TrEMBL record:
<dbReference type="InterPro" id="IPR020449">
    <property type="entry name" value="Tscrpt_reg_AraC-type_HTH"/>
</dbReference>
<dbReference type="InterPro" id="IPR009057">
    <property type="entry name" value="Homeodomain-like_sf"/>
</dbReference>
<dbReference type="InterPro" id="IPR018060">
    <property type="entry name" value="HTH_AraC"/>
</dbReference>
<keyword id="KW-0805">Transcription regulation</keyword>
<dbReference type="Pfam" id="PF12833">
    <property type="entry name" value="HTH_18"/>
</dbReference>
<keyword id="KW-0804">Transcription</keyword>
<dbReference type="GO" id="GO:0043565">
    <property type="term" value="F:sequence-specific DNA binding"/>
</dbReference>
<dbReference type="InterPro" id="IPR018062">
    <property type="entry name" value="HTH_AraC-typ_CS"/>
</dbReference>
<protein>
    <submittedName>
        <fullName>AraC family transcriptional regulator</fullName>
    </submittedName>
</protein>
<dbReference type="GO" id="GO:0003700">
    <property type="term" value="F:DNA-binding transcription factor activity"/>
</dbReference>
<keyword id="KW-0238">DNA-binding</keyword>
<dbReference type="InterPro" id="IPR050959">
    <property type="entry name" value="MarA-like"/>
</dbReference>
């Protein structure tokens, strides 16, 4: 599987992130088996697809927390959290502050960014 295919996988995930993309849907889009997609994604990106989606959802939600005045519940639901409480628990676990503290304060957090260039593995 080429780096371009992995980049297509990442781009597809990014474009569908609020729709709770699945490995089965991704493999159907790419045209490889779910197992092969999963293995190659993990090998190239360094984390599983599930971990990638969780990290990106939380990072995108954090950006909305900081840059918008949307309710935390609306942001939580947009990114697939079952409740505002579940979102807050995940946020605190990842960033050691609540969404409210992040929105109001000069708190700095480390977001998980979409990879710009994937390494070529041989």
């Amino acid at each position: 599987m080429s780096v371009q295919v992995i980049e297509s996988m990442v781009e597809w995930i990014e474009n569908n992130i609020t729709e709770n993309p699945t490995l089965t849907e991704l493999s159907g889009y790419i045209g490889y088996s779910p197992y092969y997609c999963s293995a190659k994604f993990h090998e190239t990106v360094g984390i599983t697809m599930k971990q990638y989606i969780a990290k990106r959802k939380l990072s995108l939600a954090a950006i909305e927390v900081k840059n918008t005045k949307y309710r935390f519940l609306d942001i939580a639901l947009k990114y697939g959290f079952s409740s505002q409480e579940a979102f807050t628990r995940a946020f605190v676990k990842a960033y050691n502050c609540t969404p409210f503290q992040y929105r109001k304060g000069p708190t700095v957090i480390k977001l998980y960014l979409k990879p710009l260039h994937l390494p070529v593995r041989r």
